[in-house]
Every structure is written in C-alpha cells, then in structure tokens.
C-alpha cells in the first residue's frame, strides 16, 4: 500500500514528518514512555514547566497573552494527565497502570494547588475586571478566560482564608465519597443459600452457604431469576445509603459556600439548559403515560442478531464510516502501522495495505490517520477495539492530546483513543458485529470526529471538552446515520458472498429500534428527574429512597418494589451529578439536526460542511446554544426540544401521547 506521505497534499508532508509521532519508541510516540518509569520523568517535566508558566503569567500585565499562557499551563498538565488517565485503566501491564495512577495523583494535586493559588487567580481577575480589555478579546478567548475563572471559583478562591480551606476540604471529601460510592454501586450482595429456591442457584455464584448476586440478570429468561436478582441486588446497604446522603449534602454545602443556591445551579453553569428552572419536570416532559412495554412489541419483528452479523464485518463497517465521512466532509481514514512500543498491547500483525477493509482482520490495536482532501492530516485515532482479559467493559472515547494553536503558528494535532469490546476474528471469519455493536461503533466515532475536527485556538476547549449536554450531540447524531437504510446499504455486505443486506431486514431493524425507544425514553426521564431532585433544595424533604419511590410512581409506570434502593446502584450520580438530563438534551438536539439537515439526504456535502463549521469546529469554545442556532438557523424553545424527542418514538406511541395529554 502507499504510505501516508503519498496521500497528503505536498505542502503538508514536511510538518507531518516533524510531528512527535513519527517513528519514536514509547506509548503514543512519547519517547519517555517506553517504560513505566517514564511516567515519573513526564510528570516531573510537566510540573517543572507548570511552575515556570505560573511565574511568567504572574509577572505579565493582563491581556490576551494571559489566556494563552493559562491554556499552555493547562496543556502541559493535561498531556500527562489525560494520557495517564487512559493508561491506568487500559494497559495490560500492572507496572504501567500503577505508574500512570501515580502520575494522575501528582498532577491532580498540582491542579488543586493551582486552583487555590491566589496570585495566579489575581492575574486572571485583573484581566476580567478590566472592561476595556475584556471587550477587546475575541469571543473564544473571552469564553476560555471565563471557564478558567469558573474553575477557580468552584475551589472557593474568592472567599476568605478560612472558607477557602473549607472549600478545599469539601472538594477532597467529595472526591473520596464519590470513589467510595462508585465502588459500592458494583459491590455484590449475598444471601443465605436456603432462602432461594434450589433450581435457580446455578444462575449465580455459590460460595459455601451463600449465593452471590452481582447484578440484575435482566437478560435471564427465567422470571424467578430476574425477580430474585432484582430484590437482592437492590436491597439497601446501610453504608452505601449513608455514603450517598453524605455525598449529596457535601455537594450542597460546597455549592452554597461558593455562592450558588443549589448544586444543580452550580453544575448547569455554561450548559444549554443554563439553570434548573428550565428543567422543571412538567415543562420538560409533557407526558406521563402508564408503563409502555417494549417487550411485547419487539416480538412483532424478528430481530435475531446472528442473522445480521455476517453483513456487519468490522472491515465493512469501517468502510461504511469512510464512505460517509468522504461524502459529507471530504475526509478519509487511513490505517497506519504503529511503531514498536507505540501501542499498549503488542499483538500487531503487519498491515498489508492501506485499504481499510483488510486492515481489520488482524486482532490488534490499529492507528487511523484522519486526512482531509485539501487540508491534509487532521489528527490520529488509535482503535483499541478487541476484547482482552482485564480490559474495562465500557465503550469509550479518550482524549490523549487536545488540539491547540501553538506559539509558532503550527496546529497541535489532536490524538484520541476509541475503546470497544469486539470479538476477535477467527480462522474462518473476520470480526462480526451485531447491529448494536455497529451502532456503538458509529456513536464512538462521532466523539472521535468531534475531537478530530475541532479547530479551537485553546486545548482547554478542544473537541469534546464542552458542556455535558452538548458533548453527546455528535455521537447520537451518528446513530441516526447508522440506522438509515441509505447509509447502511452502502456498506452492509455478507462477508462470504458479498451480497447486500436485504432492504426488508434493514427496515425491520429500524422499526424494532423505535419500539424500545419509548420505554427507554421514559426510563431516562425518570433518571434525569431523580438526579435533579437529589441535587436541588437541601435538606431533602425525606429520605433518598422515599424520593425514589415517589419519582418512580410519577414518572415511570413500573411500581416501586418495597425494600429496594436502586439509587444506591446509580453510578452516574458521580460523573453526571445534576447533569443526567444531558443525554435527553443531546438526543433532542441531534434529532433536530438530523431532521433539518440530513434526513432528506444523509450524504449532503453542504450540510456536512455546515455541521463542521457551525458545530464541530468550535469544541467547547462557543456557547452551545449559539452552535445549535447556527446549525438549525433558528433558536429552539423548550417545546421544540420536547417535540423532537417525542417525534422519534413509535408512531402508535405518538398518537397515544396526544390522546393522554
């Protein structure tokens, strides 16, 4: 196959060969990281550079330069912390994981110290307090300055010494409680063997005289197994209950201390929703239907994943993404051979060609160069797609290095990792994806393209570093493409015969999706409402379990089961505290963008370019509502958001709603 330099427009070859990623040995091409000890060197260099930058910014008069140095400071720490964040969970070798964990800790401590460094704070404050200076800043620089200021204020820097110390203590306490709560959400429950009917023991792990229940077993066909798992796994644990109550009340104390009326007000600063008032439940959700069962409906369509898998080989799906990106954005993905030591799991067979199809039949980590037809190399995506022991189960996207404009005028290219858990190829067949896996691949690729196409001046707002309720828009939008017949038919080919996926099979698949969407939507509304109440006015009127029961009865048709406390397993309360509604908000925005811009023609280049220009290019450097407006060419109201969500559901469900309003 041709090398990448043959494919790049000639004026880009030079900058490409100078990039730090060329041929160096070490994780992600960082030379120090050829061994675990390298993390110490990398972190020490980053901390030394941070000290110099702090000194520099404190000695300069306020101006746009202040924001640039702040961003460089953030970049020098993030480049180590982001990389370490990924390595500490994904690297198969323990020594690497521990070294990365240590690096995260020391950089985290440094960030805490910087957020309470009064001199550093004052250098930014002088800039923001000078109206004439602020007016002279471009909107992106101004937004980035305000975001850095927001980080300071959350740490309570504007308070007196004693309160500031309290804010720091609360932050530490919240971090500890969050970790304890997260551990507890997955902790199995056990019950004495004789309390469970014998014939269902084999569905669980049995140790001595106890049966261990480690999850809900929601997929089990035996309803007794599901019932037992539900009641035992969700049985309230006193320690976990106390931990949640303390977490919520400490979050509330911190928010009040730094000047917000509730934690929810603090968390929604800068998002699409702006304040919790916009999320009042009757407004957001105009329906309150009885339980709407997806199960009965799904039987109408015969969706047997194994019938679909042969049409969705990984090579075919990647080719599908390539076709889509080429038509919409003029972008091609090229598979490249990583240098030895550059990836964290060395099971790499030589790639035979630059043709994507062949590259994925090896079961290794591969590297994609993202190349634009006229602009050249835009960034790199490392794909860690295959199952292996000890690998975390979730599918996710990691930023390894953010994009930013460097002082010498070069653009620092973004680097990300996509992690999935796909089956390995076998001797007789390539890796085959179920329809759900194919949709996930498109979803995660949406995040990756957001990172690749962001062209922000500052890495603090690169790609997916944007408000939570906007971050899922590009990924959910990709699901619409993955469920569109015109897109699927471009790439779904039987891996043996080359036959296209029959049209009736595609439409059955899309119909079945809509059916489950209604029950899922109701569940999301219930979760989002619960999260808002927990982070609203404190002290809470009553216990977290009573609030769960009331909210469930009001917003979710399934009755509450006595002696269960599902909220103690709700791990998203940690990462998405007061922001769980983001998923619904992102889905509403993605739905509007799809209908307005792509539904008529999913390959429309003009719409693709507008999407890149108005939404993807800005990362988090622009108000999310302005990006949505630029794309839709109108300012959506709460009603628009709601109807966008409702219109995606099953047609029968829509009429049912209209009748019940």
UniProtKB/TrEMBL annotation:
Gene: MIPEP
CDD domains: M3A_MIP
Parts forming coiled coils: none
Name of the molecule in the record: Mitochondrial intermediate peptidase
Keyword Protease tagged: yes
Family: Belongs to the peptidase M3 family.
Phosphoprotein as UniProt keyword: no
GO cellular component: mitochondrion
Alphabetized UniProt keyword annotations: Hydrolase, Metal-binding, Metalloprotease, Protease, Zinc
Obligatory cofactor(s): Zn(2+)
GO molecular function, one term: metalloendopeptidase activity
Cofactor comment text: Binds 1 zinc ion.
């Amino acid at each position: 196959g041709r090398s990448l330099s043959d494919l790049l427009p000639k004026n880009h070859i030079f900058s490409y060969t100078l990039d730090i990623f060329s041929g160096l040995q070490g994780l992600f091409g960082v030379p120090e990281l050829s061994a675990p000890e390298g993390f110490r060197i990398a972190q020490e260099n980053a901390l030394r550079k941070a000290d110099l930058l702090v000194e520099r910014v404190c000695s300069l008069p306020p101006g746009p330069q202040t924001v640039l140095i702040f961003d460089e400071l953030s970049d020098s720490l993030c480049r180590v912390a982001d990389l370490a964040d990924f390595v500490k969970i994904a690297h198969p070798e323990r020594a690497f994981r521990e070294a990365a964990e240590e690096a995260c800790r020391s950089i985290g401590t440094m960030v805490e110290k910087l957020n309470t460094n009064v001199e550093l704070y004052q250098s930014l404050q002088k800039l923001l307090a000078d109206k004439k200076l602020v007016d002279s800043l471009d909107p992106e620089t101004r937004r980035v300055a305000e975001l850095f200021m927001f980080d300071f204020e959350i740490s309570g820097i504007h308070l007196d010494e004693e309160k500031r110390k309290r804010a720091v203590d609360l932050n530490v306490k919240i971090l500890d409680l969050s970790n304890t709560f997260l551990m507890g959400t997955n902790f199995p429950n056990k019950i004495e063997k004789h309390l469970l009917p014998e014939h269902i023991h084999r569905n669980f792990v049995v140790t001595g005289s106890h049966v261990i229940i480690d999850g809900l077993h929601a997929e089990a066909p035996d309803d007794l197994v599901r019932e037992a798992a539900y009641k035992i796994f969700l049985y309230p644990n006193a320690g976990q209950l106390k931990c949640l109550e303390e977490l919520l009340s400490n979050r509330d104390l911190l928010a009040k201390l730094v000047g917000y009326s509730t934690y929810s007000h603090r968390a929604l600063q800068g998002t699409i929703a702006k304040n919790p008032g916009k999320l009042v439940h009757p407004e957001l959700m105009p329906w309150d239907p009885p339980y709407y069962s997806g199960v009965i409906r799904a039987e109408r369509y015969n969706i047997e994943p194994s019938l679909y898998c042969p049409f969705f080989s990984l090579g075919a799906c990647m080719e599908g993404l390539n076709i889509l990106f080429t038509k919409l954005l003029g972008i091609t993905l090229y598979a490249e051979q990583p240098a030895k030591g550059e990836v964290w799991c060395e099971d790499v067979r030589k790639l035979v060609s630059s043709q994507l199809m062949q590259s994925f039949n090896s079961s290794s980590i591969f590297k994609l160069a993202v190349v634009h037809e006229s602009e050249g190399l835009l960034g790199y995506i490392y794909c860690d797609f295959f199952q292996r022991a000890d690998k975390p189960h979730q599918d996710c996207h990691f930023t390894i290095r953010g994009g930013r404009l460097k002082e010498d005028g070069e653009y620092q290219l973004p680097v990300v990792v996509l992690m999935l858990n796909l089956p390995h190829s076998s001797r007789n067949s390539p890796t085959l994806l179920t329809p759900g896996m194919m949709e996930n691949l498109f979803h995660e690729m949406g995040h990756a393209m957001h990172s690749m196409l962001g062209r922000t001046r500052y890495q603090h707002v690169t790609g997916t570093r944007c408000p939570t309720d906007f971050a899922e828009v590009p990924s959910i939008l990709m699901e619409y493409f993955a469920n569109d017949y015109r897109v699927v038919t471009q790439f779904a080919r039987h891996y043996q015969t080359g036959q296209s996926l029959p049209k009736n099979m595609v439409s059955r698949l899309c119909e079945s999706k809509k059916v489950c969407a209604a029950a899922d939507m109701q569940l999301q509304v219930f979760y989002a409402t619960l999260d808002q109440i927990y982070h609203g006015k404190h002290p809470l009127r009553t216990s977290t379990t009573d609030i769960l029961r009331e909210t469930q009865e009001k917003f979710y048709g399934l009755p509450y089961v006595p002696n269960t406390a599902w909220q103690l397993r709700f791990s998203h309360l940690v990462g998405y505290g007061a922001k769980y509604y983001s998923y619904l908000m992102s889905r509403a925005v993605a739905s509007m963008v799809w209908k307005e811009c792509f539904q008529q023609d999913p390959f429309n280049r003009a719409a693709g370019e507008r999407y890149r220009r108005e939404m993807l290019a800005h990362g988090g450097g622009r108000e999310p509502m302005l990006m949505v407006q630029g794309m839709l060419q109108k300012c959506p109201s709460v009603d628009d958001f709601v109807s966008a969500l409702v219109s995606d559901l099953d047609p029968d469900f829509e009429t049912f709603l209209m009748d019940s309003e």
